[in-house]
Amino acid sequence: MNTLTFPQPPEWLKMARRLLRKRALFVLPALLLNSALLCAQSASSADSAQTIQMLLQRIDRLEARVAQLEAAQPSSSAPASTVAATTPASAPAVSSSTLGAVASDLTGPQQEMESEQPGSPEERMDVSKTLLRIRGFGDINFHGDTLKGDTTSFTLGQLNLFVTSDISEKFKFLSEIVFEGGPDNIYGVFRGENNAFAVDVERYLLQYSYNDYFNVSVGRFHTAIGYYNTAYHHSTWFQTATGRPFLFQFEDRGGILPIHTVGASVSGLIPSGALGLHYVAEVGNGRASRAPLVEEPVQNVIDDQNHKAFNLALFARPEAIRGLQAGFSVYRDLLAPVGSPRIGETILAAHAIYIRPNFEWLNEAMVVRHAPLGQSHVFQTPGFYTQISKRFGAYRPYFRYQYVNAAANEPIFPDVGRQQGPSAGIRFDASESVALKLQYDYTTIRNQQAINALAMQVGFTF
Amino acid sequence: MTRSIGRWLIIAVAATCLLGVSYRSARAGAPARDELNPSEQNLAIIVNTANPLDGLSMSELRKIFLGERSHWPNGRRITLVMMVPGQPERKALIREVCQMNESDFSRHFLHGLFTGEVFVSPKTLASPVGVRKFVFNVPGAIGYVRATDVDSSVKVLRVDGRLPDDKEYSLRIPPPAAQ
């Protein structure tokens, strides 16, 4: 049999009632006594009666208030968490991105003290919020040159969505998703439509950071050959000039280096005191070498052979000269083009750069060696660039000279030949996030007429 | 008439001189702001009380606040706590420790995150109380507040062997006019 029961009033309500009754018991006689004395003293009985009446009315109002609170009892006995959630005013203004980190960091004895901190409830991770952070980079260009067949055009550059996520204290996800238009140029062979856009996942990395000396990344990354490749990635806004040097052009833009690698990378500091030595060791699929070469040059899914590419880089950032970085790298792979013997590929690179907020000087040199197995001849492709710039307020004039010289019968990139020439330009930072650049290039190419080019670019981050 | 004008001029000049002298002597006699409270304008580097470190060199501090060091010696990840842009404490830290301006600092961190060298971006909080609470709650946190805003919930690190109350402490917040 169901019985109808009323919820018991909370303890505090009972106490309030008791106090009210006690108060009435003590107050009323006192008032009566007081009023009697007043009557005796002043004989103003009418006033006393009025005062008593007012006090009685007040008691009535208080009792009504108690009844009202009793009626509201179910809603007022809400969980303590609701109460806690209503106290964010005194909590620290933690940005949303901090919430996950704070939650993961609250461990051990500190957690016990959490309840003493008014801000702590807000610092818990909110599972309804995404942990993704997205930063965008883009550029729009206006370009004209004297190369036969080229037209002066407005060009949409790469639209780069840089996505990161702090998965945990030790793990992080990082990717660059790039939308880019125009045909691919793979070793001089063009494919794709002129004006169609395509999407490339240029970086796709899971990073694990054990400490400053040992970090592991797996996925698709930029190969640590030299400096430029891992410093600027797919953002023109970060770069001083409108584009990358010849040497570091992307694989699908006529570049000669294995810019991207799919594999694993280990990096970190080497205990070396003020010398500031760092290392990077990478292993991956290497570049595609099997015909037809117009296919995707980065082996994202299937390697065309079991042999893996290796890269080792060492560099120093000495404390004595802040902004200086000098180092070298050695890359080794075995390419297997169809119809020809395997080719051993070795890329030796060295760099010395000096970057301060108002000044930069980049210098890199390398040689790409292709040694067909069973042949004594080794094809060497040397290249270098130097770039210098100085900031004057919002303006940064810059100069670059670059050179690359591949043999005409180079087995992997026969189209490159010898290219060299200066570039001069000026960058104007219109705001913290928008840069306007104007650049002139003069490029000489073996067996061709020199090319004059003028480019304007607006690069931005958002 | 001329004589009275001259007399008044002499009186005015004398009064001006007297006033000037008394003002200068009053200023010379009054203690400077620093003498009143040497730590008032100093910036304290604070960490969680569980952090075993007691001090850092300026060079180490710079590496930490530029994201070039991501872990404490005990293996715990460093969580940087910055105040929101525009706060004098933040300006002082960026200028004195990082040797940059606000724009360069932002760009540096964005670039570091972009290259992957900086593992996590700094947490940004609005007030010294918020910074203190965050550092109190997060064992790997490091932040900064005015020395006068420090309480027992956090630990103050020595910088180059000196505490904010020491004479030759190097991290100072300049008065607003100098910023």
What key attributes describe this structure?
heterodimer; A: 462 residues; Porin; 7 helices; B: 179 residues; alpha/beta; D-Maltodextrin-Binding Protein, domain 2; two-stranded parallel sheet; 7 strands; 41% helix
Task: Please characterize this protein's 3D structure.
The complex is a heterodimer of chains A (462) and B (179). Chain A has helices at residues 11-42, 45-71, 73-76, 80-85, 98-105, 109-112, 228-232, and strands at residues 132-145, 153-156, 159-166, 171-181, 184-186, 189-191, 197-211, 214-222, 260-270, 277-284, 309-316, 324-335, 343-356, 359-372, 379-390, 395-405, 418-429, 434-445, 451-461. Chain A has 462 residues and is of the alpha+beta class. Chain A folds into two domains: 11-40 and 49-73; 133-461, Porin. Chain A has a 16-stranded antiparallel barrel. In chain A, strands 5-6 form a two-stranded antiparallel ribbon. The longest helix of chain A is centred in the N-terminal third of the chain and has 32 residues, at 11-42. Chain A starts with 10 loop residues before the first helix and ends with a strand. By secondary structure, chain B is α/β, with parallel strands linked by helices. Chain B has two domains: 2-30; 36-178, 3-Layer(aba) Sandwich (D-Maltodextrin-Binding Protein, domain 2), CATH 3.40.190.10. In chain B, 41% of the residues lie in helices and 15% in strands. Chain B is built from six helices and seven strands, in the order ααββαβααβαβββ. Chain B has helices spanning 2-29, 33-36, 58-65, 88-96, 102-115, 128-137; strands at 43-48, 55-56, 79-83, 123-125, 141-146, 154-156, 158-159. Chain B has a five-stranded mixed β-sheet. Chain B has a two-stranded parallel sheet with strand order 2-7. The longest helix of chain B has 28 residues, at 2-29. The radius of gyration of chain B is 23 Å and the shape is globular. Chain B starts with a helix and ends in a 20-residue tail after the last strand. Mean pLDDT of chain B is 81; it is low at 16-36.
